[in-house]
Amino acid sequence: MGDKYDRQLRLWGAEGQRRLANTHILLINSCATGSEALKNLVLPGVQRFTILDDQRVTQADATNNFFVTLDSIGSSRAEIVTKLLLEMNTDVTGVARHANVKQVLQEEPQYLDQFDLVLATDLDELVTTKLAELCLIKRLPLLIITSYGYIGSLRLQVAQHAIVDAKMDPPRHELRLFKPFSTLQKFADTFDLQSMSTIDHAHVPFVILLLQAMKKWKENYDGQLPTSFLEKDEFKKSLQEMTWGSWGHEVNFMEAAENAYMAYVPPQLPEEVASVLAVAASHTVSIEALEKTKDTKEFWLLAHAVADFVKQNEGLLPVTGVVPDMTASTEWYVALQELYMTKAKEDATKVHQILLNRMCDLKLPQDMISFDAVTAFCKNAPNIGMLETRSVAQEYKHVNLVGVDLEDEDKEQSPLIWYFMLRAVAAFASQFNRYPGSEDAAATQDGAWLVAKAKVLAAGSDVVDWITDDHALEMTRSCQVELHNIAAVMGGVAAQEAVKLITHQFEPLNNTYVFNGISGSSMIQKDWPQVAAYFKALLQSRLHSPPIYCGLAGDKGKAMYAGKALKAGEPIWTEAPFVAMQHEDNKEFVDCCDNCFVPLIDSKICWARVVTGSSSEVEGEAVPADEAAASEADFEAAIAFLQKEGGKSPEESYFSVFKLAESQVKCSCGVVYCSDNCKQIAYAQHHALLCPRSEERENAMGQFLNHTLVTNEIFQLAAKVVAKILLLFVATQDMAQARQPVDIFCKLPWWEVITSEEDLEDGETLEEYRDKFRSLLMQTYDYFISGLTENLAHLETQNELNGLTADALLVSCNEVLSVDFFSRVVGMFEMNNISMEIDHPLHALSEALSEASPEEKKDMPPVLARVKLALEKFTEEHNHQCDEEHDEYDEEECNAVDEDFVGVEGTALFSGICTMNHSCDPNCTVLYTKDGAAHVFAVQDIAEGEELCISYIDVDQEVDGREECLRLTNVSSFIAYWRLMSDQAGSTNSYVIAPVVRKNGKHRRLSNKWRRDRDGLIDYESFVLPRPKLP
């Protein structure tokens, strides 16, 4: 067998061949495509196969299927194909069953239990759905292969596929240079570089060079590793200083410089490996759970043992024993290799002991998994993984195009178009029991049906507009024809993926492969389980299942869609921010809770300002003496009255914030909260790691915070995110869960997000320009990590790290503590932040009193009348001052309450709202309540399946930037639409929810700032919409 399978053994080894030789495959329908796929599995030596097919050989089969002959026409196709396939490999056995697959699945669902893998071809939608459902229940891998004219597709469905060796390219090597084991460091110390010959000096392994250079560095820097960009650069230069002759003459030193990061970057678990170990920790809790994994039971037991090993060894995987190629003498390379192999055996022994203890707990045989198997698993530990695709039923219910990039797709020949056309063909076959185009007279009607069906399937994506009658014509003229060349291609692809599944090596394709033989193009429609799972959990738990779903909006990326028809003014969902902060300049005007962001208002000071501002003469007339001025007691009584009228308790009412200043609590660093509960929540979520511990901010974290005040306060928000991830990891020890809300949005580094070619000065390159921002971020990152490390050490002394040490936490969380991650978090806020605006409660009081009808005013209690009069006088006096300062003013624009009583303004990340795209014709708006929660409302009728959009101008963008945005946009239809809406509404009870363009030279206040428009530029006004009722 060794000679027979020599070449393939080089690909998947003896273990992979053993798995192939123990596999039983079921092929459903032995058409040309199915026969080609099975042929490519018979040749490498599967144990046996079964063909389930009720068709007889036809003339068409004889022309496109090499495994039938002309003299076999009329015979059972399954039997003929089986006979000819067995001639290709005598090691393989096979049987044929002439039966209808639909009938077998209905009457004998247990029939599938004997197989390890199912290949299915030439099935309609109903049979495919039933087969996929049974395979999912039985945890059988399923490959659905389609060849239709010049188009082919392959759909993979697996419940939970384990990857023993992903065969990464390039391979992953972790040499423990960051934290060398004792024998490795001792070996490195034996090298005396200065006394060597020139030849020996040029053949010292780079591992030794890095260990010696780092040892010298630590001696000079009190045992500290290089952390900043400048320090790392200095470390690399120290390697250059160690070389003899010109730089580049000694290749081993160049290799050391290229791999210098290994010496100062903590080793990190690859994301795929971390996911497997997290699942393994809960996967092997019982025999019953293990039995569900079929042939991967051994895999999950080993993964659980390695997961325990990692926990006990500061987040480090077992040493693999593999040493990469490098410039070195044979003697030293072999000696180095022996060191790593010895350490690998030690680690494997520890993993084996953990495994034996686990198997004892589960009452499994101690010899069930050999030590050699443990050693092999530890060797491949950096390359393990798992794959779980969406089920076919989920795909048929809703095609998940989140993550598919359509920007570069050919709008005439994109494989994605043909995916939807193949889906439409399968649906047609199920509904009409024939294939489209099979009846010449109905070909045109069949094509129209296919176009309509494909557009329905592609709803919510740009692909809808790409589907034309020409695509339908290609489907109807193909009419179930299999071209042998396309069948051969798809059979080869299917067999390749089958081998990956059988051997548990290499990474199988994720979801669907589509091949377009017309243009010679293909694509993999990847599944995005992390994204899909996150938004599913977000909508169901945190957002309480609103009538929306996440999908793809063409090249705009992810988007939110209406799950049902919505009416204008209808609330859609409410969402608390994942993380938020108040703007520093806003703190000068209003205090708020640093956790829930409710305004902290002192009612006495607030009312005193109103009384003072309304007590002077207005337009030369003194206030009548018979009108008693509203007192502080009147103000308190008015609030109590409005609370009672609203049917809410004082604590529930928005006006309750007038009392919060009296109960506020402070942290030692000066940060203010509305209650002890909010203080405790903030401490547990992020403040424990961000607290400077005194108002003087003299420690390292204080230096970071002071640095952000003179650079960019968005760095504080990024620090909040990292701190929140770390503390969530401390609580759950699940990094994937802790970082998931951020990974959904993290894309580009900060310097790439905020720079463009248009910003360059003469002679400056884009990279030079970006270096300025990169340098600033590196400096900020150094401040932050220094403060974070100091605070982690403090929490360790207070026993607040859930049994972890600060050093272990830094190692386990090294990915989210990297400068790369920090830069992408900052970039995330530049791309996805949403303004957070919480109104001052005096605005609500003023509106509540001013909204009274004439009849209500007559019956208004005297206390309310006095308060209302005081507010009116306050506004009148303010307008009088505006009139004196400016030639003309708009009463709406010069508002005393707005100017003197500023609300809370900040920036936040709302996971759901940030997924919405912007539009110049938005159908939604976002309003805020006193607790910082955001409420999404429809501002016009929205159809089911329609994308939900908000205003495309960022609220916290500078005024000039907003003007530039509008100048660069064709705003004519924008103006007309909003003015029409304003005219139709005809009410004064409105919210500013969208910008409208107008030309004037008046003053206009935006975001609590005054500015004068230049003549002919744009301005904003509110359009009118009946105010929706807030929760």
UniProtKB/TrEMBL annotation:
Pathway per the UniProt entry: Protein modification; protein neddylation
MF term (GO), any: methyltransferase activity
Keywords annotated in UniProt: Ubl conjugation pathway
Record's keyword annotation contains Cell cycle: no
Pfam families from the UniProt entry: SET, ThiF
PROSITE patterns: SET (PS50280)
SUPFAM superfamilies named among the record's database cross-references: Activating enzymes of the ubiquitin-like proteins, SET domain
SMART domains attached to this UniProt entry: SET
InterPro entries, per database record: ATXR2-like (IPR044237), SET_dom (IPR001214), SET_dom_sf (IPR046341), ThiF_NAD_FAD-bd (IPR000594), Ubiquitin-activating_enz (IPR035985)
Residues covered by the SET domain: 733-953
Family that this chain belongs to: Belongs to the ubiquitin-activating E1 family. ULA1 subfamily.
Name recorded for this polypeptide: NEDD8-activating enzyme E1 regulatory subunit
Species: Peronospora effusa
